[in-house]
UniProtKB/TrEMBL annotation:
Single GO term (MF): ABC-type transporter activity
Gene3D superfamilies membership: P-loop containing nucleotide triphosphate hydrolases
Membrane topology, from the record: Multi-pass membrane protein
Pfam families: ABC2_membrane_3, ABC_tran
Membrane-spanning intervals of the chain: 30-51, 71-92, 99-120, 175-198, 352-375
Top-level taxon of origin: Eukaryota
Name of the molecule in the record: Uncharacterized protein
Domain ABC transporter as annotated: residue spans: 275-351
Keyword annotations from UniProtKB, A to Z: Membrane, Repeat, Transmembrane, Transmembrane helix, Transport
Sequence ranges assigned to domain ABC-2 type transporter transmembrane in this UniProt record: 3-197
Organism: Cryptotermes secundus
Length: 381
């Protein structure tokens, strides 16, 4: 039951906008997920070790698993945890409400475990292909693994390196522990890909959604820069109403016909916050946005930094399109938001430390883990 609770916290981070803020600070997306994985595994490794010890230590005359190899049982359980955590990441990426995500998580977790126990324990007649496909769910895979361990134990042999790829049923090509192992790795890779994809195309309220085919666009893999000298296209027609910009200036930020519409009450209420803004901002100059309350200044800034996706229109920052090369854009951006986006569990000092160090790439790695550890500690005490 640990996994769904991790999922709730992952979704909370997405809902509160802290995740986007960290990305805005320059945190790499993979690092964020990696730190969640470390966070989840810190606890799971301890649990798995305790379980394995309980299974192997003899109480009275015999241990529960008398013959099986300690390390192999431990590794299988650990792989199961890793696959289970990525499974929860993948489900969590479909949700933007933490509690809903956790309910769905617990439900799916429970169903995928209990509904498969019976067929797995009695399923020796099933085709090996069916068994392997069913192991796409980590909970089913671990049920198969338990079944295999029990088979080896009842034969008095126990699971060992020697029979790792041998099916205990004796049938050629039947399911073996090695195959379960492979399937758990396949699951981890599969759910990581699902998480990566869904998280990119449906980032939730904050963040810029990528188009569904983003992974075949060359710009995703290698950031492409538009020609850095923009031509002012509609200059000709505006000539009479606008003063021409000085010709020696370099356009740093180019906003073209930017619109942002907020939908609330499930799409019933439409609020046009930014309506067709076209603006060139020159590098080497200080530019200020002025306007009455509700004019859309904050929304414009939020779109520029990638906190919200634009409804339509485009923004180029230093030649990079924010829809395609947000990471590149963020390397040259900073934003002090109007509303505090804070970790509810950290103190002022911890926030200062965190954001000071997170902006130094070389330190990101260790610090993120540290902070997640603090978070976890807080949550539990
Ligand atoms: N997250 C949001 N959901 C719905 N409406 C919003 C949201 N953020 C801003 N708005 C609306 O968009 C308009 C522009 O807001 P904002 O950009 O904050 O204005 P400014 O910063 O210029 O005062 C306002 O009418 C505000 O109510
Ligand atoms: Mg404002």
């Amino acid at each position: 039951m640990l996994c769904p609770s991790i999922m709730k916290r992952v979704v909370e981070e997405k809902e509160s906008g802290v995740k986007e803020l960290m990305k805005m600070m320059g945190l790499k997306t993979w690092m964020l997920w990696f730190s969640w994985m470390v966070n989840a595994l810190l606890v799971n490794v301890i649990t798995v070790t305790i379980i394995t010890v309980l299974l192997k230590v003899p109480f009275g005359d015999t241990a529960i698993l008398q013959y099986s190899d300690f390390f192999l049982v431990w590794v299988i359980l650990l792989f199961y945890c890793i696959a289970g955590v990525t499974f929860c990441f993948a489900i969590g990426s479909f949700f933007s409400r933490p509690t809903l995500a956790m309910c769905a998580g617990i439900f799916l977790w429970f169903i995928s475990y209990s509904a498969t126990t019976y067929p797995v324990m009695n399923g020796n007649t099933l085709h090996v292909g069916v068994k392997l496909v069913s192991a796409i769910l980590p909970n089913t895979a671990i049920n198969w693994a338990f079944g295999l361990i029990v088979s080896w134990e009842t034969r008095g042999e126990g699971l060992s390196w020697g029979n790792f790829f041998t099916p205990p049923s004796g049938k050629e090509g039947d399911i073996s522990m090695g195959l379960i192992w492979v399937m758990l790795i396949v699951d981890t890779v599969l759910y990581s890909i699902v998480t990566w994809y869904i998280d990119s195309v449906m980032p939730g309220k904050y963040g810029v959604a990528k188009p569904w085919h983003f992974f075949i666009m060359p710009s995703y893999w290698c950031s492409s820069k538009l020609s850095s000298t923009f031509s002012s296209d509609d200059q000709a027609e505006n000539n009479r109403t606008f003063e021409n910009p000085p010709s020696n200036l370099h356009v740093g930020i180019k906003i073209q016909n930017l619109r942002k519409i907020f939908h609330s009450l499930g799409g019933l209420n439409k609020k046009v916050a930014v309506d067709g803004v076209t603006l060139d901002i020159y590098s080497g100059e200080i530019t200020t946005l002025l306007g009455h309350n509700g004019a859309g200044k904050t929304t414009t800034m939020s779109v520029l930094t990638g906190l919200y996706s634009p409804t339509s229109g485009s923004v180029y920052i230093d030649g990079y399109d924010i829809r395609e090369n947000l990471d590149k854009v963020r390397e040259s951006m900073g934003l002090c938001p109007q509303h505090a986006l804070l970790f509810s569990d950290l103190t002022v000092m911890e926030h200062l430390l965190f954001f000071a160090i997170v902006s130094i790439p070389a330190f990101q790695y260790s610090v993120i883990q540290l902070v997640h550890f603090c978070l976890k500690f807080r949550v539990e005490h």
